[in-house]
Records
---
Amino acid sequence: MNSPLPDLRADTMPPVDYWSLRWTESEEQIIQVRQNVLEPMLRRLRSGALITVLEGEGAGYGATCDLSREGLRTAALEAREWARASAPRALFEAQYLPRVDWRGVYTAAHPWQSNALGDLITALMETARKIKCHERIVDWQASVRLRHTRTVLCTSLGGKIEQEWTDLMPELVAVASNGIDTQRRSFGADCGRQGGLEQLEKLGFFSLPARIAEEALLLLEAPNCPAARMDLLLLPGQLILQLHESIGHPIELDRILGDERNYAGGSFVTLDMFGHYRYGSELLNVTFDPTCREQFASYAFDDEGSAAERQYLIRAGILERPLGGQSSQARAGIAGVACTRAEHWHRPPIDRMANLNLEPGTSPLEALVRGIEHGIMMDTNRSWSIDDQRNKFQFGCECGWVIKDGEVKGLVKNPNYRGISATFWRNLDAVGDASTWRVMGLSTCGKGEPNQTIHVGHAAPACVFRDVDVFSNA
Amino acid sequence: MAAALTRTDEICLLNFLGEDSDFVRLSRGRIRQAGHVLHSELRVCLIRGRRQTQGACTLTHDLAHNRSRLEKLFSELRLQLDFVHDDPYLLYATAVCNTEDNRHFDLPDSEHALTEILAAADGLDLVGLWANGTLCRGFANSLGQTNWFSTGSFHLDSSCHADNGQSVKLGYAGQVWKSEDLRQAVERVREHLEVLYSRPKALAPGRYRAFLAPQALGEILGLVGWGGFSLKSLRIQHTPLIKLMRHEKALHPNISLVEEHARGLNPQFTSSGFLKPRAVSLIESGRFVDCLADQRSAAEYGIALNAESETPMSLVMESGHLPSLDLLEELQTGLYIGNLWYCNFSDRHDCRVTATTRFACFWVEGGALQAPITTMRMDETLYRLLGDGLAGLTAERELIIDPGTYEWRSTASMLLSGALIDGVTFTM
């Protein structure tokens, strides 16, 4: 892999105990059609490096988009200054941070030919036109974001890790209004994947416009979601956000250690829970899986250089291990996973979700529905809120369907539900099989100070929860 | 350089973003992660006839390297222009209007400031972020226009945490460092902590009289501003303020909101070369007045452009009459809400907002703070909060500078009162 970095001679980097340089480059293309008009296309090229220096008890970083020898040296000197300034006041010893002396490569690149642009624009225009099938469709969009990313991590110990991938984020939106109510139905914002344009066909992107438009129109006439405690069947389009907010975030190790208390919050999970705490029913199995082909956040090494492998985080409902990289593991004295990640070159890596999956069970969707006497099925998140300890949550979805006596009865709009993470997952009563399992991904998980967003992969089946507080509010 | 790359049948719009910042992350009163970021990016809009396409690339300090990057970008953008159609909503400034706005600042040395901060907060479990540095924005086009904006600021966005899980915000931001201001901010935090150390009170779900401090109100207005004042959202009937804009509902007559571009911490020019008006009145005496229209909406709907973004960046609320010193007495019995967290809509059409309490939220009885409260979830419509439930706004307003650092340090701000409200619903 070629990088624009100059040869890092001894005179580029200052004499320190250890340094690492993480170069990241991305090329991004966004194509969006709104109301049959092609919006200005955006092509974005980003490149920069973050240098981490460990000196004595301290650690510091310098990030720069100036990749000349002088620019890198300036960043390295800044990093060393911060390492020295931090040392007497450091939260933890610099020895907890990994020192990479190994090499590795990961490639999942799908080079996109620029001459495919014309065909893609034509396809998106045609897809958008199909959404506008009725005068009540007042806004409609079809878009694709393609991104090609390369990273090189090199270190003073001779370590070198090169990774490269392409990912794609599609989206379809239909907004319907009858002058009294407005409803929105969408597809794709939760379907980020690694891969190229072939993923659009795999996702069924081009066959969905009519369906989302029809559902938006039907929602206008649908009754509001009933309010009661009832059984809840979550399809993957909502289940992944439940997984993200009330399992993924609470078990991030840096959060448990208190690092996020000013911004993203803490957690109801404590270190002494790992190994024995019942997080959910015995049907709950959650894995960290960076090896899942085509999933949004697959990689071979995290951004600190730790080798990534599949691990159970929750097994048969028991909390086993946290989402925490090497430095957090050292601080906490507990095994985690290789999940220290940064948004791009200009942010330091912190504990993040990557691919976080709820493993499939044994029930087909029809069996899940048949098992519900009085309940509701929900899909596609549109509103999410949870407290700073990741306990009291409230979610809203784009649509729901009433289930009565084991049958889907009718569409409802404005469905919401709320609960408490510590008890919600213990009411998990049925897990869908592989036929209900969908590989999805979110692109805007926000955390950290300074703030950063990261893309995460989530794969999950449909699931049934008993006795949930469901309501409409409308 | 970009002008040299532009052909005679093209028009080029350039936007430069630059930032040079220290970021020091704190936890437990110690340094968690410290570093520096130098970041600059050039955004290009290339126009040929009625066709346009956009690109961006990071820059270095090496002119030859920058030229190489820009040549590559221009080449790719030209290729894209061959594929796009005429854009019916293309709009850019053609009348040249040059400006230069260099704001005064006197920033502290970060190490020195941190020494003062950690000394002042000695013994406290301090968590948060110190950000300090300069930022600049520039515009230029191939018609000869140039606009420049530069500023510097520091921002301590942090909180102090008690062993019982309760916490209070400690914030200090500005452009000129004053040790006494920091000392006073820490003093106020220590006063709040005295009450926060008490055993938290658990409240049953229900309706409560409540005071929303400016920070808490800012969280709600921040959510509402996410599409609420957007011309595009109005025209597609998807704004959360649809009932206000259709005059089906109104807010309290004491509510007036203005997007005051001139007061803000942002450039006064837009990314297409227009100058923003001084202010846009959004809500006056509880009634809808106007929306924010960015370049694309202005072209699409034939309305004058009045903003760079359809999300407010410098929102100002008209002050009320309730002296802040009297608010607890006025509240008498109820909730003092210092901050709200994770706001989102539970019913967008009725502008119903849900959020949880966070940072310095107290039970008040007999006009005095009694105890902190355990986390509660609020679910209430804006038409109650700032409508028929509004019992008063404070005379004093607080300048809330957005501490956000997603990709770039934010330049957004709000100037808000606190709100005393009769009957706020808490569901859990």
Note: The first helix of chain A runs from residue 69 to 86.
---
Amino acid sequence: MNGRPRRVIAVAVALSTGMALTGCAATQASIEPMAGNALAATRSAELSIRLDLAGRTFPTTYDVQLGDMATQLANTISQLEQTSTADAAAERARTKTLAASRDAVDAIHLAQSGHDVRAEKDLHSAADKLAKLAGDQ
Amino acid sequence: MKKIFAVALGILTAIGGFVDIGDLVTNAVVGSRFGMSLTWVVLLGIVGICVYADMSGRVAAVSGRATFEIIRERLGPRAGLANLTASFLINLLTLTAEIGGIALALQLAAGVGPGMWIPVALFGVWIVVWRTKFSIMENVTGLVGLCLIVFAVALFLLNPDWGTLGTQASQPWTQITGNPLSYWYFAVALFGAAMTPYEVFFFSSGGVEEGWTRKDLGTERANVFIGFPLGGMLSLAIAACAAVVLLPKAIEVTSLSQIVLPVAQAGGKLALAFVIVGILAATFGAALETTLSSGYTLAQFFGWSWGKFRKPAQAARFHLSMIICLLIGGGILATGVDPVAVTEVSVVFSAVALPLTYFPILVVANDPEYMGDEVNGRMRNGLAVFFLAVIMVAALAAIPLMIITGMGS
């Protein structure tokens, strides 16, 4: 093999490695959809709790709704945990989204153990944080 | 009087039986993401399904034979096989989604995980298909499915800003945020959900089951042109409820339990009870229809004895094929796959298969040998060709849009 094809291969490998690395590392903008997913689940759980407090839902349906939202949040948390970030700003967004999502899951567990009022407050606070991180969706 | 009762019953069951898990999920997802901006797609889908269901029903009433039988005879085994493959696979996927929908509806009522309800749903569908008379099966599920009218009632109780909903519907471009391709992906999915192939095959085979003749063409047309559009209005009510309650809170629908939230907010426990019963009836009815459609398509292509008007022993392969389809559907769900994800995939692939399903119906409806003086007129053919063009565009765009948008995310 002569020098030219080797150089071409080396450049191609370097370019594809670079593209793969930058493609894998998340920017702040790519954290936003994950924050959006967590926000949707958090607000959904919050609405379920409000309906339960107002006596507008069945305990069975309420349990299913909380369970579904806890699962959705757990999926987002797992996705965030596996995400590597491209820069410090993205890392800050990832950490904050992760923390707010974990708070939301804790609040759902609180609601599942019967502490609806406190759970609603905690979910509201988590939702506010997530809304900012999701770009005020 | 008896005739009027039959027509009214047909219309009511057509309304109650129009919505299935695909309509429920897709309309709620779209309403929570894009408001009413995809109303035009629902309306387009309703007119499209009316045009082709009417053709399919007319073929059955005039020829006394189901559409699929004639397609194979008229177009030959090769074209018939393409039609069979596309329709059957989509039907199987839809059946899987409907069984999952029954399990999720039972979970909402009982609180126990859907995995436990899948065998119950499979057994329930099989026993009804095996034992119950066609007319009872169709009328009971259709009439109980009318409980879904609670979505329309809930919409009024929510006292929405009708102007905003109207603006969303009439100026759809104002609601497209983020990736515009996601909007088009959901447009295709919604069109696929409205024009699910099993609906026309079930309608045509059902006509044969009920012994339709030319005299029943009036009933057939009333079912299609009154019942289907009113059923389609339920689809819009589902989207509107999501647009009013979930969209402002940025809640994107990802599970069946979220679809009932606006109804519970509007009408409390009574409305919630109605919507759960309605979802159960709609998914159960659609599961019966897709199970029967699986048997119909196979039996009509291979020339087996078929129909619920025959005893199971006289249509053994027809009944065996339905049992196998149910087991395959149950097997897919037993892997733990999310029924809502199956539904989303099924409506998109439904769009892909539409040309192979609907084009042969158009050919048969134009053949005077089968249709006599009831062949399509210019107006009907014009509409059918227009919808075939729309169907082609949707079919070609479906898979690329699904890949590019990551299923609309």
Note: Chain B has 17 helices and no strands.
